[in-house]
Specification:
globular; 39% helix; five-stranded antiparallel β-sheet; 119 residues; 29% strand; 4 helices; 5 strands; alpha+beta
Length: 119
């Protein structure tokens, strides 16, 4: 981010929750959990590959060594709670605003769990 100083030796990853433009335009409550490993001083390129009009609901930074494990744990918990969407295992049907809030809380809880282990 502009004006911030980062330790260039420490690398970060990001976990995000997005609804693509296609699902948004069809008014379908389908969301994708994703991850990317990026240096924080660059734009998060993976998110810019989603089509214009996609909605990003949550972006959280984590240690790069954990990003794949964090995503896996989040996906496991989502699989137990919501049905998969039509486009693959990282897409989930989250039908209500209350459940969308619960999805965000799951992501944050998993991130906290990994941060506690790392510290």
């Amino acid at each position: 981010m502009k004006g911030m100083v980062y330790d260039t030796e420490e690398k970060h990853g990001y976990i995000y929750l997005v609804r693509t433009r296609e699902f948004k335009s069809l008014n379908r409550p389908i969301y994708k959990v994703g991850r990317t490993s990026q240096c924080p001083d660059t734009r998060i390129g993976r998110l810019h590959k989603y089509t214009k009009g996609s909605e990003i609901y949550l972006i959280l930074q984590c240690h790069v060594d954990d990003v794949g494990l964090i995503e896996k744990k989040i996906l496991e918990q989502f699989c137990h709670r919501w049905n998969p969407g039509p486009d693959g295992s990282e897409d989930f049907i989250i039908p209500t605003a209350q459940e969308l809030l619960a999805a965000k809380e799951i992501i944050i809880a998993v991130m906290h769990e990994f941060e506690r282990k790392r510290i």
